[in-house]
Amino acid sequence: MSSSLPLALPAAPLRLALPPAHDSGGTAAVRQVVKRDGTRMPWDPAKVTRAVALAFHDVLTNGAPNPHRGDAPARWGVDLSTFLKALAITGRVERMLELVYRHDREPTIEQIQDTDEKAIAAEGEWEVARSYIVYRERQAAARLAHHPDKDRKSTRLNSSHVSESRMPSSA
């Protein structure tokens, strides 16, 4: 007799136990990120996992509403297998960021999201990557509508608050 019990996570806030990315000196490669308004905040890999899980949910449910959108203990509405894929993609994102953002260089939110897209695609999850890209574009359009005095570039990648010394080199 085989019993298929659903795996539930505890009701306490979910803390993802992802190892931090490290540079060769043994310190975390990404400690801070630059928000769109230029302020800095601590790097939180759980935000990447959430975004990736939500993109998976969108694809797996053909865009159906997600009642667990903000519910970390419910794995943001995806099954355990899909959640583990999202965690693996988060690990890939961290490793990719580690290669570019060393020596106190801080990525912008947009640069992290660009990396998320690449990591999702690198896993062969093309539909999920597309969903993620479409969601980002909708959010950028909403920001533009909310702040019509700004152009699309200032609401996305080219944040005027990030100095050129913080931007990755093109080499």
Question: Would you give an account of this structure?
Answer:
This protein has 171 residues and is mainly α. The chain has five helices and two strands. It has helices at 45-60, 80-100, 109-122, 126-146, 152-155; strands at residues 32-34, 40-42. The protein has a two-stranded antiparallel ribbon. The protein starts with 31 loop residues before the first strand and ends in a 16-residue tail after the last helix.
Spans of at least 5 consecutive residues whose pLDDT stays below 50 are: 1-27, 154-171
Distance between the termini: 59 Å
Largest sheet: 2 strands, antiparallel
Strand proportion: under 5%
Number of helices in the DSSP assignment: 5
Short description:
By secondary structure, this protein is mainly alpha-helical.
Which terms would index this structure?
mainly alpha, two-stranded antiparallel sheet, 5 helices, disordered N terminus, disordered C terminus
How do the strands and helices of this protein lay out in sequence?
Blueprint: E1 32-34, E2 40-42, H1 45-60, H2 80-100, H3 109-122, H4 126-146, H5 152-155
Antiparallel strand pairs: 1-2
Helix pairs in contact: 1-2, 1-4, 2-3, 3-4
